[in-house]
Fold:
Amino acid sequence: MYLPRKNAFIYNFYSWYISYIINKNFCAFTNNKISINPNEAILLLANRFSWWDGYMLFQLNKRVLKKKFHVLVTAEDYQKTSYLKYFGAFAPEAKGKDLLETLTYAGQLLNDPQNLVLIFPQGKIRSIHVSQIAFEKGIMQVLNASQKKFQTVFAVTLVDYFNSRRPKAKTYLTKWQAEEYVSLQLLKSEFNKHYDNAVLKQTQKAS
Structure:
């Protein structure tokens, strides 16, 4: 398993750089407000549609959620973008036992109230125009490896130009209260309800 690493200089530089490139390339990056319990970790589930996703949610965590950021990425992304590990990125080196250990590690991170763990349930980048967000089975291993004392937040980021030269991005957030028994189908269904609602709100903005 590829683990996160610490380097304050690299972290601070790229933290500034991420803010800079988002402000340069987007005319706005906004989000709605939600109430967060500071005494519980956050499992952040989000749609995956572009190169920007992780950077936007890192920025959103800095200004809104204010937790210690972690993100599950692919081995390819971890190796290709070397500085990701300094932002809490971790990844499986291979499938099988190593993948299982990585998912267990993600679940254990959620036992610390200071942590946020970002997971993209789709696994890979998909078109922003998909009608439904797919969920890989591994998310259940993450939940079952934790003490289940965290809060779950759904994040759907949508991008449109409207009447601007540069695009506008908005992340629609909602806090989901998990039931005592959570299945993959239930989690997928609840996330997609939020996804559909976000798309509806985004569409209404353009009318």
In short: The domain at 8-206 is CATH 3.40.1130.10 (Glycerol-3-phosphate (1)-acyltransferase). The chain has one domain: 8-206. The radius of gyration is 16 Å. The helical segments are 8-25, 53-65, 75-80, 97-109, 138-145, 184-206.
